[in-house]
Specification:
The structure is a single chain. The protein is mainly alpha-helical. The protein contains 24 helices and 2 strands. It has a two-stranded antiparallel ribbon. The two termini are 31 Å apart.
Amino acid sequence: MSELHKKMIKEAMAAQHADVETVKKKRGENFVIDDAQPYLDAVKKMKPVADQSPSVFQLHTESVKAHFDILKDLTKTIRPEDDPFVEHYQTPVILEILCKEDPKFAKSVETFVGAIKKSESLIGRESARRYGGFYGPTCVVDFALIPGSTSNVVNRILTKTNIPADHKQAILAAKSWGMNTSYGIGDVFAHEVEKGESLTEAVKKEIGMLQAIYEHPVKAQAELMDSVGQKSFDHRKYMESYRTKMAPVVKAAMDEGVHYGNIVTIPAYCVGDIAHHISQSTFNMCKDDVVMAAIEATTAVMESTLKKAEGKIKNEYDLLGLATGASACAAEYILELDGFNAIMIVDLLTKRYHNYVQLYPTRSAAVELHNCDFMDMIYRGWKYLDKARRMQSSGEGIPSPKVGGLPVDLSPIHKNDVLMNPQRYAYPACAMTVRMSAMMRLADYPCLLTSEPVTATLMTNIIALHKETVAAPARICKDCASAALMDFRHCYCQWKEAV
């Protein structure tokens, strides 16, 4: 297994470095699609070994190739306002291919669409709660079954829908990691209410929207993009071309017995580095030296930790846990260098959220998405670091937190010249909030801290070992920071009830 783990680490860090090094080189400049070539090159080197499924890897690699080639044909660049959606065009197409190739699955989707219509009270209640901020900061388009998420509601409807269990799992997966369209529950409801519609009419329109994203997902995504003014490229042509390129890849995965829930998720979560993580918005954000340094240092912590753990990692799941745990420790430690910690930040962002709800009742359904990711990450890091500091007692030196019994190497942070010299980036005598303020910029966009390219690469490797087991959404407690420290909402979660 150690050879497999080495390969997984190599592929994951290659994806991370492709992003980070490109951003470092191009930050402050104008983004073009060709800038993402290093990430494409890294993905092309991903290969199955031993018992890993070839078709699972093809779902990943061929999707990234198709995404890059199609975007390059359609446009030279993508404006920041449009880049969040580039990873939402894949699952609608994949879902329609599955329905075309398997009439039984198509029938199950049709039955589920009917069940949505019968769930008026549930959808109305959840839409109202999202609109009013009932659950506190929450990921409406989350990859988990947390309170207030679209997946949570979809799961509740599926539990009462009479279709095969594996079809239920695939439908649920399609709106979790699969990101079937850009829609998050409650968005139509909120806008209709603020326009003056009755609550009854607002719920009816919300139900119609939820039905549409399963009944005709490609059309629904195209119309959603029309509504937000997406104009960087022709999104209908994108999905048409993507269907042509990916149909044989999907068929091959079906023939090999890959769970439909994995087929609808893998092609989507791996493409975001092209024109989203490597993008104009990232180039703009990382003009700030301290922001860039935080990303570089976190990457270095992750890589050093994983390499030192080679030969000691028990299984593929522990490898994923160590990678994300190391980055969580790094992010928390950078905050602690300025005297802050996760508990303080979660308190701040939760209080801000409740004010934000009042200021912006028609806020985007996904607006606090990455704030939640950030809070969950640093809260996880704080738990590891708090324990390490207790064990260190009065001892000197850098804390050595452990994830799964393996040490996290935080020394790269102290070797980072920018992070260790904050006085160069503020009034020198009073530079005591520089690193924290940079981390707050990343609180809106922590994708390269958490890290998404690393997680996507490792998850494909893991799914390739267990192709018949649905991987999304995660059937574990997400340990939401806001739920653990501020808002009491555990009783509304669905992680144990996942279909």
